Amino acid sequence: MIVLDVDRKKQTMIQDDIPALVAAARDDPAAFGRLYDRYVQPVYRYIFSRVGSTHEAEDITSQTFMAAYEALGRYRERGQFSAWLFRIAQSKMNDHFRRGRREVGLEAAGRILEREDALGALIRAEELTRIRSLIDHLTEAEQELIRLRYVAGLSFAEIAELSGRREDAVKKSVYRLLARLKSQME
Amino acid sequence: MSDLNPSPEFEEKVRRAMDMPNANPEFVNKLRNELMRGPVKMKSRFMFKPAWAIAFVLAMAVIVVSVPGIAAALGRIFGYIPDVGLVENTGGLRILAEPVSVTRAGVTVTITSVFVYEDRVELAYEVTGVKENYSNQPDMCGSVHPDNDFWSDADADLRLPDGTIVRRDYAGEFQFENRYAMKPVYAVHIPANVSGLTMVLKCIPFTRLGDVPENWEVPFELIPVPAGTVVGAPVIEVEQPTETQSAEAPTTSSTAEMPALPAPVVTMQLEKIVPLDSATVFYFSMNAENGDPSLVSIMPVVAYVIDSQGQKIQLIGNFALQPFEHRVGSLFEYTSQSKPADGPLTVVVENAVAYYAPMYVEPRQATPEEMSFVFDAGSNPQRGQTWELSNEFRIAGYPLKITSAKAVIWDDVKTPSFIDGSQGYEYGYQFAVESDPSVKMDAEMDIMQDNCGFAIKSNYMPVSSSLLYSQLCRDAFPSGEVKVTIRELAVLMEDTWQATWVP
């Protein structure tokens, strides 16, 4: 099932499917396919936001899902599957960067996208550019929080598990970051 | 906290500013096909342990206090440590004699806690004095990763007095616990006569190689936990019977076709209380006396505590809303938003959601065939075309009836909150689902085709006895005989449970 709703409660409820899908996926490739459908785009976007290259993002996305498929038998249904999957993605990216590829700034990665819709038209392009620039000047850990929340679309609970922090602490960190960004915009 | 809450508009701006392109559909389909061909054996290679966000300061305070009176009532649970949770006393527990630090060139590595169990050692350390968190670069020391079998220089090892090096356990029993760079867990039995160990660390996680001192060795001593000593905050086992009140259990109304069945009699059991300085932690379970075998979980909706002054204090759940991880009878951990007054405490749960998954419980309560229905969409289904259906199911006694299927496209069912659009899932069916009018439910269903997967529902919580459930597919409307499987049913239990503890 794919649900891209940003509503926290809705996301949480939909997450309830995942353990059953994970259990089924151990024996059933089709079930893994459903997990893949649910996560491939968030994982890809998250990776793209760090590598800024379609080719490299596709390569790392492939590695991520292949590794997840291979390791699924070792995944324990005690945490959030998404956190486990994104940890694999982080591992693959670190492997990638360790081989000498440089991480691109969010500004550079975002500039590639030229998506227009009604909402986008309402928000002035220069305002988005300014926000992106401010985010680009955050620390790596702060940028990562923003990426996980607004690019990968993870819930606070998922980010908390991924980062080994408490959910309320993650929420506070994100909100403080947003408050700081907003004050810098004014 | 509320003054920090960002406006939805600003969050949306950030989201738009961070907008990244989706993967090319051709790539997505190609990778999917590769995965569906079967397991892929990855060639082992050295992998850099990932990196981010494990905070430098794992400020886990270990408080050793002596409270013999309470300790006598502790039973199996030994204590509660913030950010750690309950610490079990399974016998023979040894702990760090005292925090120990080594400082070099302004950088301090401190072992803050060690728990030595029969089968493992849990260690936590922190680092101060590093000016910059440096990650994801080629010359980074590294971090940890639970999903591979390799080690990085950032992994803390344990050296025994005989020189044996113990590495943290990534693939075995404690794989899941080994997620944090500075909280290693070692699968090792430490003999009782060994009281001195050394933590060995080649370089400090997240630092740039060469920036800070490397090759750390931090020796530490263990002590047995003396009788009557509590590690962390004392845990009060609620051994007295707690009064559990509940309204009359709901039942379905009977019809000629579907006779009423009793709903589970749900009770709440308050099991542990941990008074902290600024809050109180409660552990309680939700149990079903006659729960259907397909019942997976009963999860509270609202919880609060009423103290001796009559104050009603909200309780915040310290867990993810994952029914499969909170099976019936397991403990829920809740922390009060503020410190209740001394005296009796009454924990109240208002409403709960019961989750039933007949195909995913052991032993399985239904086969996919039993939970499926088929309708004939014909060879060329058209948008708006509707099929009247009458497929009835019973899940744990609750009636569920599929009354129609309607061919819909993305534009028919999308909501503004789906900011990423259809992602290629454009065609599908909307099913009208009904239950007994007395039942507020939510269901999960699947069109059993690989190209279907995007679900949109009218209810995401059980708030109604009816539900419109849409699932969208790629390429085209599924045609011919379309098979749909019901995977899960969630039922709102409108009731109040409360348990009172008297000190």
Report mean pLDDT of chain A, rounded to a whole number.
Answer: 72
| Amount of beta strand of chain A | under 5%
Reading off the top of the CATH hierarchy, the class of the largest domain in chain A is best stated as Mainly Alpha
Total count of domains of chain B: 3
Q: Roughly how many Å is the radius of gyration of chain B?
A: 28 Å
Q: Helix tally of chain A?
A: 11
Instruction: Provide the low-confidence segments of chain A as ranges.
Output: 1-16, 108-123
Helicity level of chain B:
under 10%
Count of β-strands of chain A: 0
Largest sheet of chain B: 10 strands, antiparallel
CATH superfamily of the largest domain in chain A: RNA polymerase sigma factor, region 2, helix turn helix motif
The secondary structure category of chain A is: mainly alpha
CATH architecture of the largest domain in chain B: Sandwich
Q: What's the shape of chain A? A: globular
Quote the distance from N terminus to C terminus of chain A.
40 Å
The secondary-structure class of chain B comes to: mainly beta
Write structural notes for this entry.
The complex is a heterodimer of chains A (186) and B (503). Chain A is mostly helical and 186 residues long. Chain A has helices at 8-15, 17-25, 29-51, 54-71, 81-98, 106-111, 118-122, 125-136, 140-151, 156-163, 167-185. With 503 residues, chain B is mainly β. In chain B, 6% of the residues lie in helices and 40% in strands. Chain B is built from four helices and 28 strands. In chain B, the strands form five sheets. In chain B, strands 14, 15, 16, 17, 18, 19, 20, 21, 25 and 28 form a ten-stranded antiparallel beta sheet that branches. Residues 39-76, 145-150 and 247-259 of chain B have low confidence and may be disordered.
Compact summary:
The complex is a heterodimer of chains A (186) and B (503). Chain A is mostly helical.
